[in-house]
């Protein structure tokens, strides 16, 4: 929890936003003067956006009165004083996601040159701000999002596809806000902190193209499963009938500024500091862990089993793995990783592994992830649970709900990908 606390909006917003004078807002050391006729518009999207907005309102209290809209995942909302809150679907968009996008664009269209727009952006925004390409339906978009989530595609690839079926992602929001000044405060939930990927890059130039989108869909054999309306839209994009996303050099980005408020690296360093204070010898393996959850589990288990460093040891990794869903079970990438690790750690004493999402949710479950050690399979065997079968069915949540080991935190109000912690005694 120390790592999660280090990237919580309560810490981050006050560190990055201050009031220097009645009309001057300081964001990460940069001054933004709001003229008397100017408005302060706040737009927020993501699992952490409600907490970010709540803390921003406290900073602004008695100085500036913001107006705007915040959209977060169902169940992640918090009470706000001036800003309007809307909850929407994640990881698959719902009708409220469409409503959020419509209202975002309406507000953006009212922004004028003397206005300042603050965008509070965190992980989850791609689903929470979903719109429907002309000629298609919400059901079409939901089907595609589900196909992408189950395909094993990485977040970079998924968001390239999402951007090219949207008029808010891939830089389009910035174009709608122009000529107002736009400042984005970002909690990164992607490896490499690529702004064009976080939330599908609503306020940055998009380097990807319709051709990249088609290549990704072909790579994961999804073209034949695409709803016809979405296929026609993409074909029109390939033909140039529909314009591609805004690119670098566009004037719409001249008044756009991005600031990283929180990253996985910050959380990892906080975890390392806490481990050290508890007498462990921490080693950060990587903040850019990607790839198949089973492969990463094997790597972490091997690193712990073969650990030659001082004891007690603590191995730390951050990032975001993927799972190609072929079974019909219930779980998420962190629970799947933990279950694969439990199998690999069977018979090896003194090793405990945790894998969890910093947002408090892992897949469509109530758990953030799971904790395992060499006794996990022993307990499962006593209950006549076949861990390998649950792994193959991608049914890790059911396994851990029976054998024990689920980590249930509820919404943490932040989101900087996943943390993997291995303790070696």
TrEMBL record:
Cellular component terms per the entry's GO annotation: cytoplasm
Instruction: List, for all copies, the residue spans of the domain called MOFRL-associated.
Output: 2-234
Keyword Transferase on entry: yes
MOFRL domain: which residues?
A: 314-418
Keywords on record: Kinase, Transferase
The signal sequence is none
Q: Under the GO molecular function aspect, what terms does this record hold?
A: glycerate kinase activity
What is this protein's record name? Glycerate kinase
Per the UniProt record, the source organism is: Chitinophaga fulva
